[in-house]
Every structure is written in structure tokens, then in C-alpha cells.
Write a structure and sequence with these properties.
The chain is of the alpha+beta class and 288 residues long. The chain contains eleven helices and 14 strands. The chain is globular. It binds flavin-adenine dinucleotide.
Length: 288
């Protein structure tokens, strides 16, 4: 690994000052479970690494003003998996966090790192898109908010500029009678990445679905929303037939590739199966 300087800032402002001074030479590190392998194999060669472990704001997990949840970018997957409030109100996020790597990986792996690494298979991205979360981004020109559905711009690319920092994720509180679920398929049970991941979130009122969001991982260069499937559920009772129709429509949002983990056809099949299953569980949770 090439030699690098390491900085240990304590505030977001200090991080931004280092990023501004060192430009594209600098990389921030949270858990390092993506960054360090990429540095070891020579894919990335930052001369300056900015360690986020001392920045308290990035480690906060607390209710948003009014309602909802604010999750600091450096909050670990393990904390999200084990937090009772996250499990109760934002089940799909807790479920996705519980699937990342092993316990050892989850103790290090952060939510922000998972999103900023921007792998198409990132497990925690689809639940955040289905929950309609926003990314709070800080940079030299101040702070801005970007919907998670617009955050990813390509394989390992996001809307973040090199001098910007992901500070936190702002998740609105789901309305009454809402439910969500995340499922993924991997060939191996542990330590493998998703061949397909699907998050569904539904809200019911008067016996019909008034809002549905479905997000898919590992079937396109970025995580994607299945908007035609979502629209088909709007105003409908969530019968098995309506769910099956939506699952079939979700396949249209997928642009999968063939690789050693699965063929494009297999991935399309999985989108249909996992969309059906996640919608059925989300529906049951919304009714409970
Ligand atoms: C054995 C193993 C198993 C894994 N299994 C899974 C899995 O099942 N599912 C899955 O989705 N992933 C998996 N991963 C990938 C990885 O663990 C996750 O993506 C993790 O969430 C990354 O978080 P981190 O804190 O370690 O990121 P880091 O490695 O610290 O950072 C990742 C990238 O994000 C950038 N970054 C981090 N934080 C910020 C911020 N606040 N603002 C701007 N940029 C930032 C860094 O500069 C870097 O480019 C696995 C990794 C390993 C090694």
C-alpha cells in the first residue's frame, strides 16, 4: 500500500477544510471495509486519509425534529441492526443492516460508507430509497439535501463532489398503517453480496394502498426504483393478484447483467419473486 497521511478531525468543518485543501488526493474513511481493500489492491491511492471516527455528529442516531429519524453517516450496520427504534419503525433498514457481511464486518461497516462506495449491490440503499430518505451533504458552499432516489449516478459514483461529505440520512416517519421489508438472494448464506436485493414499503388507508415504494439492488448500474410497479399498486387493495401484477412490472425496472453470481434471466426471475415476497410481508406489517 502506498504511504499516506492520516487526519483525525473532530468536526464536520475540520473534515471539509482538509478535503478542500487536499482535493482529489484525499479520501475519508469510516469503517474502512470498502476503502482499505481498494487501497491494498491499488484501485485507490489517496495521499491523505481523513478518519471520521472522532466526528461526533456523524455517529449520532436520533429522532428528527417533529418526526422521523436522523442517522449519522458513520453509524455502523451493527448499531442499526440492534437499535430497537430502528427495528420498530424502519424494519427494512434494520433487516438490510443485519445482512451486511459478518458481525465483525458490521461492527465497522457504516451506513454512509455503504452508500458512498455506491456498489450496485449495496444492501442498505434500497430500504432508504423505499423509505423516501434524504442524504444531508456538507460542502464548501454549505449543506444540501438530495433524495436517496437521486443519490447514485453510476457504478461507484454518487452526486458527492470530492470536497463534500455525507453527514447524515434523514428518514421521514412512515405514516400510520405502513410496513416495509427487505430481502436479498445470495448463493452463499454468509459473506456474499446480493445477486438481487428488493425493499418494499407500503401504506394502507381504507383498505387500499395509498403509497408504495419498491427499490431494487444489483440489477442495474445503480440501485433503482420500480416506479411502474409502484404506480400499479396505488389505490388498489393489496390482493395476491395485485401484488403479482406489481412483481411482474418490477422486472421492467431491472437492467441486469450476466456474471458469475447469476445470469440476467435469473436476476429478472429473482426481482419478481423477491418483490412479491417483500410486498406480502410489508402488507402484513402495515395491517398489524
Ligand atoms: C467481508 C466483507 C463482506 C461484505 N458484505 C457486504 C454485504 O453483505 N452487503 C453490503 O452491502 N456490503 C458488504 N460489504 C461492503 C462494506 O462492508 C459495506 O459497503 C460498508 O457499509 C462500507 O462501510 P465502511 O464504513 O466500511 O466504508 P469505508 O470503507 O470507510 O468507505 C467506503 C467509501 O465511502 C466513502 N465514505 C465513507 N463515509 C463517507 C462520508 N461520510 N462521506 C463521504 N464519503 C464517505 C469512503 O471515502 C470510501 O470511498 C462487505 C465488505 C467486506 C470486506
Amino acid at each position: 500500500m502506498r504511504r499516506f497521511d492520516i487526519a483525525l478531525p473532530e468536526t464536520v468543518e475540520e473534515c471539509l477544510a482538509i478535503l478542500a485543501a487536499r482535493g482529489a488526493d484525499a479520501k475519508v474513511v469510516a469503517g474502512g471495509t470498502d476503502l482499505l481493500p481498494q487501497m491494498k489492491n491499488g484501485q485507490l491511492r489517496p495521499a491523505q486519509v481523513v478518519d471520521l471516527s472522532g466526528v461526533a455528529r456523524l455517529h449520532a442516531l436520533h429522532p428528527a425534529n417533529g418526526s422521523g429519524l436522523r442517522v449519522g453517516a458513520a453509524v455502523s450496520a451493527r448499531r442499526l441492526e440492534r437499535d430497537a427504534g430502528v427495528g420498530r419503525g424502519y424494519a427494512s433498514l434494520a433487516e438490510s443492516a443485519a445482512l451486511v457481511g459478518s458481525v465483525q464486518v458490521r461492527n465497522l461497516a457504516s451506513l454512509g460508507g455503504n452508500l458512498c462506495n455506491a456498489a450496485p449491490s449495496a444492501d442498505m440503499a434500497p430500504p432508504l430509497m423505499a423509505l423516501d430518505a434524504e442524504a444531508l451533504i456538507a460542502g464548501p458552499r454549505g449543506e444540501r439535501r438530495v433524495s436517496m432516489s437521486s443519490f447514485f449516478t453510476g457504478v461507484r459514483r454518487t452526486v458527492l463532489a470530492p470536497d463534500e461529505l455525507l453527514v447524515e440520512l434523514v428518514i421521514p416517519a412512515p405514516a400510520a398503517h405502513s410496513g416495509g421489508h427487505y430481502l436479498r438472494h445470495t448463493p452463499r448464506r454468509e459473506l456474499d453480496i446480493a445477486v438481487v436485493g428488493v425493499a418494499s414499503q407500503v401504506t394502507l388507508a381504507g383498505g387500499v394502498c395509498v403509497s408504495a415504494r419498491i427499490a431494487l439492488a444489483a440489477v442495474a448500474p445503480t440501485p433503482v426504483r420500480a416506479t411502474a410497479a409502484e404506480a400499479a399498486l396505488q389505490g388498489q387493495p393489496l390482493t395476491p393478484e395485485a401484488i403479482e401484477r406489481a412483481a411482474a412490472l418490477a422486472v421492467d425496472a431491472a437492467k441486469p447483467i450476466d456474471d458469475h453470481r447469476g445470469s440476467a434471466d435469473f436476476r429478472r426471475h429473482l426481482v419478481r419473486v423477491l418483490t412479491r415476497r417483500t410486498l406480502a410481508v410489508a402488507h402484513a406489517r402495515a395491517r398489524a
